[in-house]
Amino acid sequence: MSLHIEAKKGDIAESVLLPGDPLRAKWIAENYLENPKCYNNIRGMLGYTGNYKGKRVSVQGTGMGIPSILIYCTELIKEYGVKNLIRVGSAGSYQPDINLMDIILAMSASTNSAINQSVFPNSIFAPTANFDLLMKTTDYAKAKKIPFRAGNILTSDKFYEDDPDSFRTWADHGVLCVEMETAGLYSVAAKYGVKALAILTISDSLVTKEKITAEIRETKLAQMTELALNSF
Ligand SMILES: O=P(O)(O)O[C@H]1O[C@H](CO)[C@@H](O)[C@H]1O
Ligand SMILES: O=c1cc[nH]c(=O)[nH]1
C-alpha cells in the first residue's frame, strides 16, 4: 500500500492506462477488461486490474493537473513497479482542422508549468513520448484505419485563461491541443526510465468553441481506449 493507492504489491499490472477522470477508469475496466478487480478507492481515485486479449493491464484515475498525476505515477512506478504508463485524456483543439472526437498522439508536451525548472536551472527539458509505445500505437491505428494526428501539445497549469486568445501563439507554432498532465507524465517517466505515451481525444475546440458532453467524456471514448490497450 502506498499513500494514495491501497493496492497490495502485485495487484497492479506492468502496463497502466491513466485517465484523469476516475469514472472513465471504471468505464474502461467494466467495458474492456476481463475479470476487472478494483484495487483503489482512496479519494475515489478508482483503479482496476484485469485482462485484455490475454495481457494483464490496469487502469488508474489520476485526477486533474500535473501535481495530481505526479502523485499517482510516482507511486505506480516506485511502489508497484509499473513500466508502461499510457494516459487516455481529453484535450481542447488549438487548430481549425482538428475537430471534436479527433485522436491526438502527443509526441512531445510543451508546458507553462515550472516543474522542471528546479531540476534543470537556466535550461528547458523537453518532455517526450516513448518511441516504442508511439510506434506500436501508430502501427495499430494504421492497420485498423483509425485516423490520428501526432505532434506537439501544450500541458497547461490553467484550464481557464484570462485571455481567451492566448492560445494563438501556441497554435501558430503548430501545437495541436491543450490538456493538463502530459508534460508531468513524460518527465516522471524519463526520471525513472520507464515508458510513457499520451493518447488524447478532442473534447472541445478553442477555435470554434464547440464541446462534447461530460457523459461522452466519461463513457464514449472507445477509439482512444482501443489504441491505448494495443500500445504496449
Ligand atoms: O479528461 P482528462 O484526462 O481529465 O484530461 C483533461 O480534462 C481535464 C480538464 O477538464 C484535465 O485533466 C485535462 O487534462
Ligand atoms: O485541459 C483541457 C482539457 C480539455 N479541453 C481544454 O480546453 N483544456
TrEMBL record:
A Gene Ontology biological process annotation? purine nucleoside catabolic process
Q: In its keyword annotation, does this UniProt entry include Glycosyltransferase?
A: yes
Q: Which UniProt keywords apply?
A: Glycosyltransferase, Transferase
Which reaction is catalysed here? Answer: uridine + phosphate = alpha-D-ribose 1-phosphate + uracil
Matching Pfam families, A to Z? PNP_UDP_1
Taking the record's annotation, the residue ranges forming a coiled coil are none
The residues covered by the Nucleoside phosphorylase domain are 16-211
Gene Ontology molecular functions: purine-nucleoside phosphorylase activity; uridine phosphorylase activity
> Which family is annotated?
Belongs to the PNP/UDP phosphorylase family.
Per the record, its GO cellular-component terms are: cytosol
Q: Write out the transmembrane intervals.
A: none
Q: What InterPro entries does this protein's entry cite? A: DeoD-type, Nucleoside_phosphorylase_CS, Nucleoside_phosphorylase_d, Nucleoside_phosphorylase_sf
Q: What is its EC number?
A: 2.4.2.3
Name of the molecule in the record: Uridine phosphorylase
